[in-house]
């Protein structure tokens, strides 16, 4: 099933879900990636400087990685198309208006927003308000 492209539908149906646990971003040299896959990263991305791993906080601590900043993950449960236009801008603006930074990972089915752990409640409130406002306009 293809993802949704219509921005109004994406916003009204986004269903933000705050995942359990805390996460951190870590970096390892590309040559050392295989040595760290046992940490079961929830995400990774290769850059010329190294490989970024998104790890559960406890796994990062056990491996001796710096454990800051601590992030929470909000998953937008709507199946957004990778070709949708405006979704990231809309939720980033809503979070930015609240002074909340957003680090976004777009996967095949959903967008995942990593926000500072201390801001999780406010971020959820901002995203739910954005969704409710759009739903009321539909």
TrEMBL record:
Residues 2-70 form the DUF2241 domain. It holds the Pfam family ACT_3. It comes from Rhizobium multihospitium. It comes from the Bacteria. Residues 72-127 form the CASTOR ACT domain. The lineage of its organism: Bacteria, Pseudomonadati, Pseudomonadota, Alphaproteobacteria, Hyphomicrobiales. This is Uncharacterized protein. Coiled coil: none annotated. SUPFAM superfamilies: ACT-like (SSF55021).
